[in-house]
């Protein structure tokens, strides 16, 4: 039986780097995002350069029923998914009272609803085959509220908590789930879509390669949550010794996303 790695958000940024890496490792792929043209171009490139099978599923993950549509696409094509990489996601920066309501619903649908429902749909077959891994791309923003990115950080806290709970639930099965929680990563589309001024960020912005490396590390080990860089680990692990208000204040200063009221 052939197995496939399904990657959401593979059209640009971190997801595209992950698709290239999985293809180089010889995995057959199913690529999911809205930009079907970009996915087709990437699929062609990966088929040529890596000799792997690549299928493209153009799907808006903010639509109701999106996870079921992706699942049915795989069922109809007879594609058995043994790695699910939930990478699609985006941020909206700014004060909550000015936030566009539709953008908020789309963000929570992609970052939380679709991610959880994709796991819900693909997990039963993984359990039945006793083979499968789920990789969730969360963020350091999931460990504390980030002023100026309040709803985004809350959506990533959902991903971290969901991953931790599922990791324990799945002990004793052959299935693993882990989260990779990067700090700021150098992907232009992410900041442009969020409306987040990069010049105000006061922490190192890493290359998407650090996320690829962290995913590889996660696949090879048994971690539940991976903080990719030394700085990410220092930032998050030092929180336990610092009052919570100070943690949020420091996060606010470092992210530089808060607007004056
Ligand atoms: N960049 C950072 O600083 C950073 C830090 C920590 C965590 N992360 C997380 O890493 C992940 C990837 O971020 P990135 O920096 O690579 O951002 P990006 O370059 O903007 O890529 C986002 C990906 O998500 C897809 N996506 C967005 N909305 C979608 C929708 N409605 N339906 C289907 N796919 C959708 C996009 O594809 P289409 O536009 O083609 O649909 C794209 O492939 C996200 O979950 C993000 O929260 C990013």
Helix content: 40-55%
Compounds present?
NADP nicotinamide-adenine-dinucleotide phosphate
Q: How many DSSP H or I helices?
A: 9
Mean pLDDT across all residues, rounded? 97
Q: In terms of structural class, how would the helical and strand content be classed?
A: alpha/beta
| CATH domain fold name | Rossmann fold
CATH domain class: Alpha Beta
CATH architecture level-2 label: 3-Layer(aba) Sandwich
Task: Determine the CATH superfamily.
Answer: NAD(P)-binding Rossmann-like Domain
State the oligomer. Answer: single chain
Major sheet: size, sense and barrel closure?
Answer: 7 strands, parallel
Low-confidence stretches: none
**Radius of gyration, in angstroms, nearest whole number:** 18 Å
- Give the number of DSSP strands: 7
Strand content: 5-15%
Q: SSE string, helix = H, strand = E?
A: EHEHEHEHEHEHHEHH
**Shape estimate:** globular
**How many domains?**
1
Distance from N terminus to C terminus (CA atoms, Å) equals 58 Å
For the largest sheet, list the strands in their spatial order. Answer: 3-2-1-4-5-6-7
Note down, in words, how this protein is organized.
The chain is of the alpha/beta class. It has one domain (3-255): NAD(P)-binding Rossmann-like Domain (Rossmann fold), CATH 3.40.50.720. It is 49% helix and 15% strand. It is built from 9 helices and 7 strands. It has a 7-stranded parallel β-sheet, sandwiched between helices. The radius of gyration is 18 Å and the shape is globular. It starts with a strand and ends in a 6-residue tail after the last helix. The structure holds NADP nicotinamide-adenine-dinucleotide phosphate. NADP nicotinamide-adenine-dinucleotide phosphate (NAP) binds at residues 9-15, 33-35, 60-62, 87-90, 106, 110, 137, 139, 182, 184-185, 187, 189-190, 193.
